[in-house]
Design brief:
Immunoglobulin-like, disordered N terminus, alpha+beta, 17 helices
């Protein structure tokens, strides 16, 4: 029995070789936990309950190297550097940042100092940038070179001071890598709005990030780095075609390292594809899809591959598969088809949706309201519902004036699989030879196409 207890204690001490402890005087007898990051996800590292005086102690291991956050019942996180050092914290509560101080843990003390000083430098720097623009562009002030030179010197001094702080940190410390990366990720909105001259350098820095680097994977910046990188590209002030070209360059840069780690490759491409789709950046998502599908050094997850395949099999210019229907499965017996190819209109909008899809509940009635105009201009609509319940389909589609069909197989129907549908609503615009000429991302876009091309 004693041997078992000794082994248990030894195992526990090995599992958690570093500690985070301290006193939060306002949090007596409350649960507190330490969570860490793994790419896009978080995980529990350890948890405990403070005593009646607010004392606590948590453990973490070398495998947690990166960034974690402490969380109590008030749901206000305190971020900490998990760099292999013991950490001691003192204060009132995690939500009361001004009361907190790092008593022990050198890297966390540096983090705390920089987190306090850097935003103040950024605020003053933005003010100087604003004044510099006035002294450069306003004729009333542009003639005065002395203050303009002084502003330039002060701007550079502030930047140098920020850089020097990081340069003075030990080269092998986690915080030396983390602080400039955190600064990059958090600077995007300010750069886009106030310091547009820094956009090219900021985009270049994003492209140099290595998503297979465990420091980034465990940093809590993984998701924000992807989001902010592509947000900046989208909001860089360039024309849309240039934006798409820049996104292609960024995708290529990310892929150079991602292909060396299959797990992270799938994680990033899955998330980025969804991000681009949600933002309506379909040229970029199509490029990503084809890039991933043509990558031979990594195996693509089945679910992701299904989503991406739609861009290879169902891209503009391809001939869409014919559809074979059972007439009894249409919502209106007087409005049925045997095949899609029997439609005689010049154009066909094929819409995939469902009664359980919130967006479909908005868009299908909207399509119905445009149907008379579209039909008059030579555009037929065929709705294919991904339903498992016949009654739900009938209730949803009974009032639609266009042919509406459901084989009651939801995602497993032949038509759905033939068209590589992975989300609802999905639309394809076909000509009378079933060539795909547009993949509308909204009813508004489809209606605008009708008004513009079918005048």
């Amino acid at each position: 029995m004693r041997s078992f207890l000794f082994i248990l204690v030894l195992f526990t001490n090995t599992l958690f070789s570093q500690s985070i402890q301290g006193n939060l005087s306002s949090l007596s007898n409350q649960s507190i936990k330490l969570e860490g990051f793994n790419g896009l996800k978080t995980h529990l590292i350890s948890s405990t309950t403070t005593d009646e005086k607010g004392n606590f102690k948590l453990g973490y291991s070398p495998s947690d190297y990166g960034v974690g956050y402490l969380m109590s019942a008030d749901n206000k996180p305190l971020f900490v550097i998990l760099s292999g050092e013991d950490i001691e914290i003192s204060g009132g509560a995690l939500s009361d940042m001004e009361s907190l101080s790092i008593i022990k843990g050198q890297q966390n003390q540096w983090f705390e100092q920089y987190a306090n000083e850097h935003p103040r430098r950024e605020q003053v720097l933005s003010a100087w940038v604003y004044l510099e623009k006035i002294y450069t562009s306003d004729s009333l002030f542009a003639i005065h070179q002395t203050p303009s030179n002084a502003i330039h010197i002060e701007k550079q001094r502030i930047k140098n001071e920020d850089e020097q702080f990081i340069a003075n940190l030990p080269e092998d410390s986690y915080v030396r890598w983390f602080l400039p990366t955190r600064r990059l990720v958090s600077s995007v909105s300010v750069v886009a709005q106030y310091r547009t001259d820094e956009i090219p350098a900021t985009i270049k820095a994003f492209r140099e990030l290595d998503y297979t680097d465990s420091r980034l994977y465990k940093s809590g910046l993984f998701k924000d780095a992807i989001d902010n990188h592509f947000w900046l590209l989208e909001n860089s002030g360039n024309a849309l075609e240039r934006v798409f070209e820049e996104m292609k360059i960024s995708i290529d840069a990310m892929m150079e390292t991602l292909v060396t780690n299959e797990k992270i490759f799938n994680e990033v491409t899955d998330y980025l594809f969804d991000l681009l789709e949600r933002h309506g950046l379909f040229q970029a998502s199509e490029y990503l899809a084809l890039k991933v599908l043509n990558e031979v050094s990594c195996t693509v997850d089945n679910n992701l591959a299904r989503q991406l395949e739609t861009y290879r099999a169902m891209k503009k210019g391809n001939i869409a598969p014919d559809m074979v229907f059972e007439r009894s499965l249409f919502s209106n017996p007087a409005n049925t088809l045997a095949t899609l190819s029997e439609v005689k209109s010049n154009y066909i909008v094929v819409v995939f949706g469902a009664s359980w899809c919130p967006k479909c509940k908005e868009e299908l009635p909207e399509i119905a309201s445009h149907y008379a105009k579209w039909k008059f201009k030579g555009v037929e609509v065929v709705f294919v519902a991904l339903e498992a319940d016949r009654n739900s389909f009938m209730d949803f589609a009974k009032s639609f004036p266009f042919p509406s069909y459901s084989d009651n197989k939801k995602w497993d129907g032949q038509i759905v699989n033939d068209y590589y549908v992975f989300a609802t609503p999905t639309m394809f615009l076909l000509d009378n030879k079933r060539e795909i000429i547009l993949r509308p991302n909204s009813v508004k876009q489809m209606d605008a196409w009708v008004d513009w091309f079918l005048k």
